[in-house]
Amino acid sequence: NEARTLSCQITRFGDDERLLIIRDVTRLQRLEQTRRDFVANVSHELRTPLTVLTGYVETWQDNSDALPASFGRGLKRMQEQTVRMQHLVEDLLTLSRLETSERHQHNERSIDVAALCEQIAEDGQELSAGSHEITCRLEEGRRLYGDVEELRSALSNLIYNAVRYTPAGCHITIVYRSWDKEGAAVEVIDDGEGISPEHLPRLTERFYRVDKSRSVASGGTGLGLAIVKHVLLRHDAWLDIESRPGEGACFRCIFPAARMESAPA
Ligand code: ADP
């Protein structure tokens, strides 16, 4: 008498024929839940030993004069790798929190999206340290309902990627505009090298990278776009990626009308 989960799919043939497929997805759902719990637990358990390791590495670095010279390079590598692991663990925890916590638990408020875009552009400037030209184009003024911290983390990932995956001298534009009927979109557009079409459908998968060594070298965890996708899903929104090799990329977050506040009178 256990509750089961069924998935229904209706396919239409011609004008008056329909095919109804009902699948029992209970087992699949359980497996997915086990996977999520496992990832969340492992990430959580890794936090403490990592904090201890980081503490030792920092102490040794502060006293590096007292250590043999040959330790220096190894110590630097250890520090880089512990920072990398910390970012990975934090991103894994963020992702599992986004996947598992109920939507009503997040703090939905009215967000000044235009102001958020300006802050994100400033963060991008800081990260690029003047190597890129970053501008903001605000064509839309409406606020939207959502979790400001979640949206900030999604947009930060997009601007960080735009800075990290484009050569110095490129232009990056953040655009806030109306979209479709009453919806809105935030776009992060760059004029960098772009991405080949075969990669586009897989970019939001966990650990999918076009060029792994470049991603690792630039401090990427391979989870950025998966986080963006999940944040948007929690806002009934979605990510659309347009890019052509040699022509840059546009990462567009599309918010439906139901999320938007009406324009100020
Ligand atoms: P990562 O941590 O590797 O940056 P992401 O999920 O954020 O992981 O991005 C996945 C991959 O998408 C990156 O490794 C990179 O190859 C590609 N990518 C993301 N943004 C851009 C961009 N603006 N231009 C070119 N490639 C990009």
From TrEMBL:
The keyword Cell membrane applies. This is Phosphate regulon sensor protein PhoR. It is found in: Cell membrane. One of its GO terms (biological process) is regulation of DNA-templated transcription. Keywords: ATP-binding, Cell membrane, Kinase, Membrane, Nucleotide-binding, Phosphate transport, Phosphoprotein, Transferase, Transmembrane, Transmembrane helix, Transport, Two-component regulatory system. Member of the two-component regulatory system PhoR/PhoB involved in the phosphate regulon genes expression. PhoR may function as a membrane-associated protein kinase that phosphorylates PhoB in response to environmental signals. It comes from the Bacteria. GO terms for cellular component: plasma membrane. Its EC number is 2.7.13.3. It comes from Kushneria avicenniae. Residues 41-259 form the Histidine kinase domain. It catalyses: ATP + protein L-histidine = ADP + protein N-phospho-L-histidine. GO terms for molecular function: ATP binding; phosphoprotein phosphatase activity; phosphorelay sensor kinase activity.
